[in-house]
Known about the structure:
Shape: elongated
Strand content: 15-25%
CATH class of the largest domain: Alpha Beta
Largest sheet: 8 strands, mixed, barrel
CATH superfamily of the largest domain: EAL domain
Strand order of the largest sheet: 11-12-14-15-16-17-18-19
Distance between the termini: 111 Å
Number of strands: 19
CATH architecture of the largest domain: Alpha-Beta Barrel
Structural class: alpha/beta
Number of domains: 3
CATH topology of the largest domain: TIM Barrel
Amino acid sequence: MIKSKQLKKPQLVLIVDDQEINRDVLGMILEDYYDIIYASNGREALQMIEEYRDKLSVVLLDLIMPEMDGFKVLDCVRNDELLKSIPIIVLTAERNAELRALEMGAADFITKPFDMHEIILARVERIIELSEGRQLIQAAEHDPLTGLYTRNFFFEYANRIYRYQQGWHMDAVVLNIDHFHSVNALNGREFGDRVLGIIGDGIRAFLADSNGIASRFEGDRFAILCEPQTDYQALLDKIQTRVNEASHIAGIRLRMGVAPWREGVDPVTLFDRARAACGMVRGNYKSHLMIYDEEMYRRELLNQRLVNDLVRAVEERELKVFYQPKYNVQCDPPRLSSAEALIRWNHPELGLVSPGTFIPLFESNGQISTVDHYVWNEAARQIAEWREKFGVTLPVSVNLSRVDVFDPSLEERLESLVERYGLDHKALKLEVTESAYTENAEQMIELINRLRGRGFEIEMDDFGSGYSSLNMLSSMPIDVLKMDMKFVRNIVQSEKDFRLVGVVLDIARYLKVPVVAEGVETEEQLNMLKEAGCDLIQGYYFSRPVPPEEFEPLIVREKQIEREKQA
Length: 567
């Protein structure tokens, strides 16, 4: 049954036929349901299609006409980007003509003479509904700013290629703009949108000569699935040139990550790899292209293995806490003052895994808090054990990660530790990196003040790595500065580096806090730091990080020195 016109949005139908009687008959059949306009030949029809292209729902087109026949109209419409989405139903009595018209892109046909009114109405309504549905899909599947696929449709088509075109090897390419938020902030969103459109144009130009599909995922992230290219740098350079020429701002830099096709790897995984490769050149002003390679693949497998094994490592106590001593060098001989807790992972199959491998991994995925909680508990337990065994409380520093400092249960967790092991708050020192202070300064300062109010001492780790301003330093609540080891490394050979150490020590004196110098390896470094006024030394000169049983002789030696001093 045909729907009543009152329930439908007004739709416009163009009837094209050189016979007036045919136009009248079709008009009479359709006029109760649609708005109708007419054309008597192909040339007039093309003019009206162009004039009403945004309003037309369907064209009923006779094939045999003077001046310009229906086949020519079909050909013109199907080759015009602005018109080809308008559905055309051909009117003919010749079966061969029907087939030819359908092959040229006609949506359907109506056979002359027009004696089956209900069938004509049903076909027109069906074609209009199919066309409108297709237009809705097209609107949803394309990003309006760039004309590229949206994320969901892109992966739908990419997965189809993966499933049904198994002999078709395709690489994944991810393209980003470095610091795009700054581009928008400085130049306005309209300018940023124009840059995104330019990149979209460049990608479409590339795909015109290469099989593939592309998407704008979100923001400034673009994805391309394409046949393997011999020179991706050339592709990046072409798109970069378009951006430079159109924006006239040389500071806009693109970066690209490529994940080559690999047997059995699905599109989602392939694009995760391309995104990871793209992220590796973020902020790199020498290289803007990274190809995902075997080394990155092996690292990915290792990272996934470590992520999967972390819970077991905690339960089975595969994580080992080592301790590195800190010595007060402003006395003779230097005296053991405290220690820093440092994590190691003795994996049952991989062996000793470097913290430089798993710490950044867990920091990036948020699991670092699991490691930190383990270290805090082990350090607190060890302080209590040494107190019972040697009669001294040796303070130990533990790290607070970015994830920890914004944990609402942090204070209660730390408080429960010192209560459980009967510790003074000052025995468990808390290290926070300098960079963490700058990410959310007000919230950080508020938290640190609360922790200090409970009695904990705060050490600023990696001081001098370049994040703080002197103005910020004056308001930061800290008890100790730990000088970044890069200052110490070359002080013997570099007068400039030694002067920088002096600057750090002057800042500490201004703040009235002691300084710990990390990474001290030689006696000459030690003497220079001591003479400059550095309070505490940590490094291989005194000891590498060692397990508790190897640390204990240092405590025994310290007690011996104390007894000799009192004798």
